[in-house]
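Example record

One chain of 984 residues, shown exactly as stored in the release files.
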Amino acid sequence: MEPTPEQSPHHAYPDHWEADVVLRDGGTARIRPITTDDAERLVSFYEQVSDESKYYRFFAPYPRLSDRDVHRFTHHDYVDRVGLAVTIGGEFIGTVRYDRIDDTGRPASAPADEAEVAFLVQDAHQGRGVASALLEHIAAVARERGIRRFAAEVLPANNKMIKVFRDGGYTQRRSFEDGSVHLTLDLEPTEKSLAVQRGREQRAEARSVQRLLAPGSVAVIGAGRNHGGVGRTVLRNLLAAGFTGRAYAVNRAFDEGLATLDGVPAHRSLGEIDEQVDLAVIAVPAHRVPEAVADCGEHGVQGLVVLSAGYAERGADGRELQRELVRQARSYGMRIIGPNAFGIINTAESVRLNASLAPESPARGRIGLFTQSGAIGIALLSGLHRRGAGLSSFISAGNRADVSGNDFLQYSFEDPDTDVALLYLESLGNPRKFTRLARRTAAVKPVVVVKGARHSGSTPPGHAVPVSRIPDATVSALMRQAGVIRVDTVTEMVDAGLLLAGQPLPAGPRVAILGNSESLGLLTYDACLAEGLRPRPPIDLTTAASPQDFRDALAEALADGTCDAVIVTAIPWVGENGEAETGDGQVLAEALTKAVAGGSAKPVAVVHVEIGGLAEALAAASSTAAPRPRTVTSAARMRAATTATTARATITGTGTPAAQATTTGTGTPAAPEATTAPATPDATTAPEAAPRPGRIPAYPAAERAVRALAEAVKYAQWRRQAAVPGKVPEFLDDTIDEAGAAALIEAQLSTAPDPRGRPLTHDEARELLGRYGVDVRPTLPAPDPEAAVAAAARLGYPVALKTTAPHLRHRADLGGVRLDLADEEALRRAYGDLTDLLGKPAELLPVVQAMAPRGVDTVVRASIDAAAGAVLSFGLAGAPSELLGDTAHRLVPATDRDAAELIRSIRAAPVLFGWRGSAPVDTAALEELLLRLSRLVDDHPEVVSVALEPVVVAPQGLTVLGASVRLAPPPARNDLGPRRLPNY
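Predicted structure tokens for this chain:
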């Protein structure tokens, strides 16, 4: 909305305060500033508020608003007086207002930093979290306007409002004065207020998806009388799946006399239906969708699945049409899957929903599946069905205009029917939020992701996402840090999903291999080594082995404490007549299943070649649909939110490590691991008396089975480490001058009004880094030989002479660096050689620096990406990182465990730990440097990039020889403000 002429031009309408939010029950609402155009809306809203609520607001009977009241409540300067409204369908359902006051409680202006705040919510909408959402947004507005505290007077009987203030998580003070409760809230966000905000966000967004997946009634809008249309196909699939709710066919073209279609009531509009419809599936041409959405909104539909195409995938005009679709749906409180969606499926016995174009509903199982591509969705459904796997839920989001992979993670986190979440993503609308949600979800159940469009450098049509400059390898590393199992293909995703949904997590990388083919066993052995596993020599049962032999061997391997997982390899065995028997997979499946049922809880996978019916028999013998007790308590949610979920010490079904392993498979010392916490009654997975066998996955190739197992091993190790989160050592706080660094940054940026910021000089960078205990070795300019000699005398011999010209920086291979110059003669000779070889001093920009102790040259960087956030990177200097891309990455803020893992996760890490007899370097000093740099960019987002190169790490200590720092106004962050849905 635009400001009216009555509003001051100095305080223009703040449209950035507008936001769509998800309320507690999963419905959406719009929060926006109140304007002078809202007088009639305000009066209408007030008339629908009960006398009791009016009394609580005004402390006296107040049946109606006077003209003066209406004027006061609709005229704001958006600085000292601000009012926000929550709207649905354009009408107010709640309001909040603050007025800046001084120490005596009188109206004031800045620099007064306190304001009086008051709320009013329609009785029909109380209990939906309206006031809580308003408090978050009005607090953010107040902080933006320099207000630090809210004061509120509440009647003692107004328990609901007192609870809103109490549960907000802000620091507060309370007193009882003159018959009312006086509350003062400090508006500075706290860990508790942020946790409360994110907890509410999770419950609301999960509920919004749950409302879409578990409707009590569904209307298919656009279901035609002719066979074969999209709407009619969805209706038939809905009925064929045995939907437990009520279904309706809606089409304005129906004849008035048509009563039913495919056995369900047929109507020309939603208004003809006697009950409120929960979910509408829209399958009409794009130009008719707005009419259908309006019909849904006016009749209380809770959510939409829009199958119609012709939106952002068609270009700029279509993108605007898509934005308008989202705005229209949200204005009525509805969420959207689509447009251009394939549909949704929920196999729960109480729902049995197939509102999709998939002709056959998948079996009930423990896997949740989200995809942004209809074609990939079809392929995944087919692949899972072919291998006998079941699903708990399926969402194909199409253009992902509203409901996204982040919403699916919110839902999957607490869905008791989902053990594994699979996601095919072509874009990340909010990478920071995705990483946060994935980390929390992965702490209680596996998350497997395939990222499409990795190298195209473009966003798939229909997807609007923030621009990110970080390469795909960095994205992959950050996903790994969050516990996400990232694979390259949908086939690998299915392979990993089957193992994770049907088998317990391995306790370590030790693998037993047994089977009736020596060659297949050796192939499996080699594949294990290639994936960093530790296979035992294969056990050859010979081609004469019977199913009973397989059962006995598998039972023995499962009982063996020296292995953590078992891979069974099988080829058709030879019968009594000497001919291969290929069709008796049922017998072998029964034997393997019985062995697993009687053995210890270790993952088992089968590699088979041409054994007819084995995979199907294994799927039938033990399905991913097997129910397992699984609850996520409120305390467990809190632990998962901080990645401190307590891992159980024994295997309890899918996704829980059995014990701690200590290996990296590379010969590099492992990063510090957490000690497994003891099981408690409040653990995230409900305890079982004994592990229950799940589905044994079967694979047609050894490489596929081993790759899936390797992913499970890495994920299990991450779970064990995530059970006790890392931390920043406390001693850093005593050596860091945060205030001094802030003053330096402010002074530097004030001299550079350019929004792109500015690079710091060498001395400026040294001073700033020094405030965080990062000592950069001094460098003195040497524009001529005499200056070089003077610099060396000042620094002390031996010295290094280096060029700093951009094309020669850090290029010792081009002759731009001369080391170990022990005296003036050597320095003058090196200076002459340098200028004779490479050019004039004015071109080379030579400098002199004192020599550092010998060690390993490394490079440490930190940068802020607008989409992903602050990223800390590490690698060896030169060819390993620049040519081979051997660089590791972690999100900031980094913990002590992150720093330890960072230096150990590069392929060249053995160089740091005494490779080929060399002396190990001081990795503790290197970890401390990483933590200090992480702390710097986390404390000061204006530091948008830092590069320390080279950092020479010696057996004792390290030396930072070069540093470059760039300052700029920090990019806006959308993950720290009040809850809001993204607008693409």
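Notes: The CA atoms of residues 429 and 465 lie 5 Å apart.
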